[in-house]
């Protein structure tokens, strides 16, 4: 009921007057953009990240962003550049991929710094699908102390189809050592055909389930996972493996990987409930 009311408010009172598009330079020649929705200063700011090869315009992300702003939260929704200047469209699986997990993490770090520069001293990271994994990678690499919590929705590892991961890693390491820079085509995430550089591909392939589980146990912030029990994109036994860690998790019954339909509101409800229990700091 609460989420339905929020949705009606979003329709009746557009947030356009409290929204802006931010463009910043990630690397030389690579600007990237984000939407900045302004909420209440007394509440934590949310950095909300889209899934694999998507943009901030993905429906799961936009619905969540508007709902969070309507609940009073400032939301920054960046589109990862993937080394494409000012990228605004979903990147096709078959495109040439010259981006890496390290570059994704660097951009997340940049946007955290940007929020800090706007006076936000309490930040919560929320990711969907592969975006949850990318945020986890950031949290595993000396996160800023202003980041207080993390919500991973439909969290998934870097899937590589039926390939042997150890053999693929060994092959990629050999290619890199031999300075072989030709593109390698491999299955990655939902892409059956994913052409990438050996370095870029390896940076994602290393994030298998064991590494992801280890990272979850070690990150220095509060954690909530929100998963759907009708998610057919998850590997066999993944929900059970997550539950076994004891990490706080909500399972949304009937929800698929994208938490669409009525389950968008379940996702929003659980996110707001978690955010409401985070210690709020007064504005500086």
Give an overview of the whole structure.
- The chain has helices at 2-12, 59-70, 101-117, 130-139, 165-177, 198-205, 209-218, 238-244, 263-276; strands at residues 19-27, 30-37, 45-49, 75-78, 123-128, 147-153, 184-188, 191-196, 222-228, 249-252.
- It is an alpha/beta fold and 284 residues long.
- It has 2 domains: 2-157 and 207-276, 3-Layer(aba) Sandwich (Rossmann fold); 159-206, no CATH class.
- The strands form 2 sheets. The protein has an 8-stranded mixed sheet with strand order 1-2-4-3-5-6-9-10, sandwiched between helices. Strands 7-8 form a two-stranded antiparallel sheet.
- A hairpin with a 2-residue loop joins strand 7 and strand 8.
- Helix 2 (59-70) crosses helix 9 (263-276), helix 3 (101-117) packs across helix 4 and helix 5 (165-177) packs antiparallel against helix 6 (198-205).
- The longest helix is centred in the middle third of the chain and has 17 residues, at 101-117.
- It starts with a helix and ends in an 8-residue tail after the last helix.
- Mean pLDDT is 92; it is low at 1-16 and 280-284.
């Amino acid at each position: 009921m609460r989420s339905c009311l929020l949705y009606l408010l979003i329709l009746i009172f557009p947030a356009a007057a409290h929204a802006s598009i931010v463009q910043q330079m990630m690397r030389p020649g690579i600007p990237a953009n984000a939407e900045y929705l302004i909420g209440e200063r007394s509440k934590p700011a949310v950095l909300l990240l889209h899934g694999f090869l998507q943009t901030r315009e993905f429906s799961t992300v936009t619905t969540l962003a508007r709902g969070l702003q309507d609940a009073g939260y400032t939301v920054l929704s960046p589109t990862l550049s993937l080394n494409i200047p000012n990228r605004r469209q979903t990147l096709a699986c078959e495109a040439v991929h010259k981006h890496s997990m390290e570059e994704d993490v660097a951009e997340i770090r940049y946007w955290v710094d940007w929020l800090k520069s706007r006076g936000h001293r309490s930040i919560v990271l929320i990711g969907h699908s592969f975006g949850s994994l990318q945020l986890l990678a950031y949290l595993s690499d000396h996160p800023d102390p202003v980041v207080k919590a993390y919500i991973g929705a439909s969290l998934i590892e870097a899937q590589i189809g039926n390939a042997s991961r150890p053999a693929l890693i060994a092959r990629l390491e050999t290619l890199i050592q031999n300075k072989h820079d030709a593109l390698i085509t491999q299955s990655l995430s939902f892409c059956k055909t994913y052409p990438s550089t050996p370095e870029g591909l390896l940076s994602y392939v290393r994030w298998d389930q064991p590494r992801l589980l280890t990272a979850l146990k070690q990150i220095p912030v509060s954690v909530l996972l929100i998963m759907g029990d009708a998610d057919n994109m998850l590997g066999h036994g993944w929900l059970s493996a997550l539950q076994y860690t004891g990490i706080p998790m909500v399972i949304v019954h009937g929800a698929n990987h994208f938490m669409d339909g009525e389950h968008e509101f379940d996702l929003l409800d659980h996110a707001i409930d978690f955010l409401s229990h985070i210690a709020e700091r007064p504005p500086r």
